[in-house]
Automatic annotation (TrEMBL):
Keyword 4Fe-4S applies: no
Stated name of the protein: NADH-quinone oxidoreductase subunit D
A GO cellular-component term linked to this record: plasma membrane
Subunit record text: NDH-1 is composed of 14 different subunits. Subunits NuoB, C, D, E, F, and G constitute the peripheral sector of the complex.
Role according to the record: NDH-1 shuttles electrons from NADH, via FMN and iron-sulfur (Fe-S) centers, to quinones in the respiratory chain. The immediate electron acceptor for the enzyme in this species is believed to be a menaquinone. Couples the redox reaction to proton translocation (for every two electrons transferred, four hydrogen ions are translocated across the cytoplasmic membrane), and thus conserves the redox energy in a proton gradient.
Domain of life, per lineage: Bacteria
Gene Ontology MF term list: NAD binding; NADH dehydrogenase (quinone) (non-electrogenic) activity; quinone binding
Gene name in the database record: nuoD
EC numbers: 7.1.1.-
Residue stretches making up the NADH-quinone oxidoreductase subunit D domain: 136-306, 311-385
Xref: SUPFAM superfamilies: HydB/Nqo4-like
Species of origin: Streptomyces montanisoli
Pfam family, one: Complex1_49kDa
Membrane protein topology class: Peripheral membrane protein
C-alpha cells in the first residue's frame, strides 16, 4: 500500500508468506475409494505432495483361515477377496491343488472353465466401465453396464446357482455338467452384450469432458510398473506387454491364441487404462464365443474326476498363477500331506496395483485424484484379503 508521500507499507501477509502443508484424509468411507480404503494425502495448496494408501480395514485373515479348512472348503474362502472375479479366484486354488496331485482334468471341464473365466472377466470389466465414468460425473454409462451385466449374470447363475460367489469349481473339474440348452442361451447373451458394447465408444470415449479429465492424467511409467509388480490392464496400458494367457498358457488358452488379443497402449495415462479395459472386454467376448464353438464339437463326457472321501495333497509345494481380470493372481501352496494346506499364500492383483498410487499422485492436482484412483480398477477386498 502506498501513501500520499510515496512510502510503501506491507499489510497483513501473515501465514500466506510461506507454504504450509496440509494433511487430508480421503476415506475410509468415501464414494470414490471402492470400499474402505483410506488415502493420507499431504497437500501444498491444490497440489498433492505425498500420498499414502492406508489399508487393512477389510482384512479378515483369509490366508490363516486356509490352514483350518480342507481342500474342498478353501474354495469358499478364495472366491471372496475380489468379489467381482469370484470364478477366476476359485481357479487359482484348484489349479494349485490339481498340480500337487498330478491330476488330469477332463477336456470338457477345461473348456468350460475357460468359457466361464472369460464371462467372469466381462462381468468384472463392465462394472468398471460403468463406475469409472460415474466417478467423473457421468451417470448414464453405469445403467448400460448393469443391463449388460444382468444378461451375463443370468447365464452364470443358471449354471452355478450363484450370482457373486459361484462355488462352481472343484478339485478335478467342475461341480456338475451344463444344463440342457445352456450353451445356446450363453451364446445369445454374449451376442446381445457385444451388439451394445459400442455405447462405451460413443458415450464415454467420444465424450470430450471424459477425455479432458483422463488424457495425460496419472502417467504410470513402465519402470514403475516393474518396480511395484503392477499387472493386468493397468500395466499393459503403460506398454508392458505381459499376459499369462499368452505367455504361460493354462486351461485351454494354448489353443485359443488365434482369438486372444493382448491389448496394450503406450500412453500410460487414465485414458489408456480405460481403453485397455474396454478392448479387453471385446476380446473376452470373442474368446467366450470360441470356447462355445469348441464345446459344441466335443463328444459327451465327464466334467470332473471322482475324488476320495478325504482329499489329501502329497507333501511338497507349488505355485499356480492366473491372469485374473484385474491382473495376476498367484497361490503358493505348501502341503505336509494333510487334508488341509500347511500354508497357502495369496498374491492378489489389487494389492500390488494400489501401491503405485505413491508414485502416481504426488505432483498432481487434488481435482485429478479421483480420476487417477478410479483408473487403477481395484477391489478393496482384493487388497486386504
Amino acid at each position: 500500500m502506498t501513501d500520499s508521500a510515496g512510502a510503501s507499507t506491507t499489510v497483513s501477509v501473515g501465514g500466506g508468506a510461506e507454504s504450509t502443508d496440509m494433511v487430508l484424509n480421503i476415506g475410509p468411507q468415501h464414494p470414490s475409494t471402492h470400499g474402505v480404503l483410506r488415502l493420507r494425502l499431504v497437500l501444498d495448496g491444490e497440489v498433492i505432495r505425498r500420498a499414502e494408501p492406508v489399508i487393512g480395514y477389510m482384512h479378515r485373515g483369509a490366508e490363516k483361515l486356509f490352514e483350518a479348512r480342507d481342500y474342498r472348503q478353501i474354495i469358499m474362502l478364495a472366491n471372496r477377496h475380489d468379489w467381482l472375479s469370484a470364478f477366476s479366484n476359485e481357479l487359482g486354488v484348484v489349479l494349485a491343488v490339481e498340480r500337487m496331485l498330478g491330476m488330469e482334468v477332463p477336456e470338457r471341464a477345461v473348456w468350460t472353465r475357460t468359457l466361464l473365466a472369460e464371462l467372469n472377466r466381462v462381468l468384472n470389466h463392465l462394472m468398471f466401465l460403468g463406475s469409472y465414468p460415474l466417478e467423473l460425473g457421468g451417470i448414464t454409462p453405469v445403467f448400460h453396464a448393469f443391463r449388460e451385466r444382468e444378461e451375463l449374470q443370468n447365464v452364470m447363475e443358471e449354471v452355478s446357482g450363484g450370482r457373486m460367489h459361484y462355488m462352481f469349481n472343484r478339485v478335478g473339474g467342475l461341480k456338475e455338467d451344463l444344463p440342457a440348452g445352456w450353451a445356446g442361451r450363453a451364446r445369445h447373451a454374449v451376442a446381445s452384450v457385444r451388439s451394445r458394447m459400442d455405447v462405451y465408444d460413443r458415450l464415454v470415449l467420444g465424450n470430450e469432458i471424459f477425455r479432458g479429465r483422463t488424457r495425460g492424467v496419472g502417467y504410470l511409467a513402465p519402470d514403475t510398473v516393474h518396480a511395484y509388480g503392477v499387472t493386468g490392464p493397468i500395466a499393459r496400458a503403460s506398454g508392458v506387454d505381459f499376459d499369462l494367457r499368452r505367455d504361460e498358457p493354462y486351461l485351454a488358452y494354448g489353443e485359443l491364441q488365434g482369438a486372444l488379443t493382448v491389448v496394450t497402449r503406450d500412453e500410460g495415462d487414465c485414458l489408456a487404462r480405460f481403453e485397455c479395459l474396454l478392448e479387453q472386454t471385446h476380446n473376452a467376448l470373442a474368446l467366450a464365443d470360441a470356447c462355445l464353438d469348441r464345446l459344441a464339437g466335443l463328444a459327451p463326457g465327464p466334467i470332473n474326476q471322482r475324488l476320495p472321501k478325504v482329499l489329501k495333497a502329497p507333501e511338497g509345494h507349488t505355485y499356480a498363477w492366473t491372469e485374473n481380470p484385474l491382473g495376476v493372481n498367484g497361490y503358493y501352496l505348501v502341503s505336509r500331506g494333510e487334508k488341509t494346506p500347511y500354508r497357502l499364500k495369496l498374491r492378489s492383483a489389487s494389492f500390488n496395483n494400489i501401491q503405485a498410487l505413491t508414485e502416481l499422485l504426488p505432483g498432481t492436482q487434488v481435482a485429478d485424484m479421483v480420476a487417477i484412483l478410479g483408473s487403477l480398477f481395484f477391489v478393496v477386498g482384493d487388497i486386504d484379503k
